[in-house]
């Protein structure tokens, strides 16, 4: 990968028939960072991810991933990424280990068995490795899904709403898995509707609202957008949720 940003997006626009979704989206993600694209349902998060993963063409603007322009070099982009969608893509009939070995073979890896064993350890799935995925909990499935997406060591991974539909415990398990990705230098772009998820995981958070990024910063920077915490008996810092509603609310009022 080049020394520049792992992901660079400039002036991205996309409309579906009669529905403008992205109206000029700009952001960058530094290598090895976790970047959260936060937005309500229908904000256009999946549309951004689809453009960045070459599944959809933008109407205007440019985007590059791992140094490759998505429009000019889609094949190079696809070699550099993996994409995990909202619904786990694991095979229920196979065991966790078999799922991993299958994908490793499909991706022409030299030692599929070893890769599977390493990933099972990394994602704490060793005990369940030889059970059918049909018996796994939601969190285990999603962790397996993320593990599968890492085969071949893509430098950039897209996680589109990785914890939607999971219970709180499973969500914590997935958060740990995502943190461990970035700790190894993988660049992660994750989308979420959950403010707390962005707060827990992301180095930088961007809020996509009405087709544009309305705020982009670290959690500390975002919190600084609100007036300082009032000191009463106990100091209460504004949560990201306070910031989100303060900003979105402010934009929507006439
Ligand atoms: N293929 C499509 N055709 C028409 N409208 C679409 C299509 N895909 C998404 N949309 C609409 O575009 C908007 C943004 O969708 P999406 O990017 O999936 O949002 P998010 O992932 O933030 O929930 C939504 O209003 C959605 O209904
Ligand atoms: Mg979506």
TrEMBL record:
Membrane topology of this protein: Peripheral membrane protein
Alphabetized GO MF terms: ATP binding; ATP hydrolysis activity
GO cellular component: plasma membrane
Residue span(s) of domain ABC transporter: 7-235
Subcellular compartments: Cell membrane
Keyword Transport: yes
GO biological process: one example: response to antibiotic
Gene3D superfamilies documented for this protein: P-loop containing nucleotide triphosphate hydrolases (3.40.50.300)
Signal peptide boundaries: none
Keywords: Antibiotic resistance, ATP-binding, Nucleotide-binding, Transport
Main location (coarse class): membrane
Homology family: Belongs to the ABC transporter superfamily.
PANTHER family registered for this protein in UniProt: ABC TRANSPORTER ATP-BINDING PROTEIN, ABC TRANSPORTER ATP-BINDING PROTEIN NATA
Annotated protein name in UniProt: ABC-2 type transport system ATP-binding protein
Organism: Crossiella cryophila
């Amino acid at each position: 990968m080049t020394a520049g940003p792992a992901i660079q997006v400039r002036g991205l626009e996309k409309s579906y028939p009669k529905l403008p979704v992205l109206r000029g989206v700009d952001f960058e993600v530094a290598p090895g960072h976790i970047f959260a694209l936060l937005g309500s349902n229908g904000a256009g998060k999946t549309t951004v991810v689809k453009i960045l993963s070459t599944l959809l063409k933008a109407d205007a603007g440019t985007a590059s991933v791992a140094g490759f322009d998505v429009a000019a070099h889609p094949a190079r982009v696809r070699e550099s990424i993996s994409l995990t969608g909202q619904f786990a893509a694991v095979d229920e009939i196979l065991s966790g280990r078999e799922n991993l070995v299958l994908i490793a073979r499909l991706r022409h890896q030299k030692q599929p068995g070893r890769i599977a064993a390493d990933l099972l350890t990394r994602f704490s799935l060793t005990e369940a490795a030889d059970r059918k995925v049909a018996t796994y909990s939601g969190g285990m499935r999603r962790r397996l899904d993320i593990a599968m997406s890492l085969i071949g060591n893509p430098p950039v991974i897209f996680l589109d709403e990785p914890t939607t539909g999971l219970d709180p415990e499973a969500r914590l398990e997935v958060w740990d898995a995502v943190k461990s990705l970035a700790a190894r230098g993988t660049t992660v772009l994750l989308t979420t509707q959950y403010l707390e998820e962005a707060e827990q995981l992301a180095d930088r958070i961007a809020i996509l609202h009405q087709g544009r990024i309305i705020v982009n910063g670290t959690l500390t920077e975002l919190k600084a957008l609100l007036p300082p915490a009032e000191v009463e008996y106990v100091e209460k810092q504004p949560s990201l949720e306070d910031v989100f509603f303060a900003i979105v609310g402010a934009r929507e009022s006439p």
